[in-house]
Design a protein that fits this description.
about 190 residues, mainly alpha
């Protein structure tokens, strides 16, 4: 699919909807506080785009789950990530559906209820993203076993720096070592210990 497999496609499409839904909540609160119709319109349009894109990301994620090699730890995290993603999308889809059903003739109680529901969605979308990051950065989900093995061997073999790079790295290492040990007052002449 467009040169992507499902895990890569999921990674490519999940950030924008999350950002749009995040901003939807901010626009909604800003429109409520300022009473500006332009912010209310921005909230509904970002909600529309976030819900459509979010469902694309969820479908891609469900397909990615079947495509990646994984053990029990990744599987458990994926299940929780999936549940949170479905919960998040359910919340924001319900908010959008209610707003469309009522055709902007919401009572103040309905608006407050939808705002509260959106805050719940805001929390679940952040939690979903945290778990997605944990899957990738702590458990290497989506990285094939053969690729991971090759990368571990490559890291173990080390690497060579180009001229000047090694000196810079040594200086940075020496500076951090100095910070950990004792220091001298400014102006103290160099000496051996």
């Amino acid at each position: 699919m467009f040169g992507y497999d499902w895990p890569r496609f999921h990674a490519a499409v999940n950030d924008l909807p999350a950002a749009l839904l995040f901003v939807t909540v901010l626009f909604d609160f800003a429109s409520w506080l300022t009473k500006r119709e332009s912010l209310k319109a921005a909230a509904i349009w970002t909600l529309w785009a976030g819900v459509i894109g979010g469902w694309i990301a969820v479908i891609a994620g469900l397909q990615a789950e079947e495509a990646i090699e994984h053990g029990e730890a990744i599987h458990e995290l994926m299940e929780t990530h999936e549940t949170l993603a479905l919960t998040t999308m359910g919340i924001f889809t319900a908010v959008l559906a209610w707003k469309l059903f009522r055709r902007a003739k919401l009572t103040s109680r309905e608006e407050a209820g939808l705002r509260l529901l959106s805050v719940a969605g805001f929390v679940t979308i952040i939690w979903t993203g945290v778990l997605g990051g944990k899957l990738v950065f702590e458990h290497a989900a989506g990285i094939p076993n053969a690729m991971m093995k090759a990368e571990l061997e490559n890291r173990e073999a080390g690497h060579q720096h180009e001229a000047g790079e090694a000196d810079e790295e040594e200086r940075e290492h020496a500076d951090s070592a100095k910070a950990a040990g004792h220091t001298h007052a400014p102006g103290t002449p160099p000496h051996d210990h």
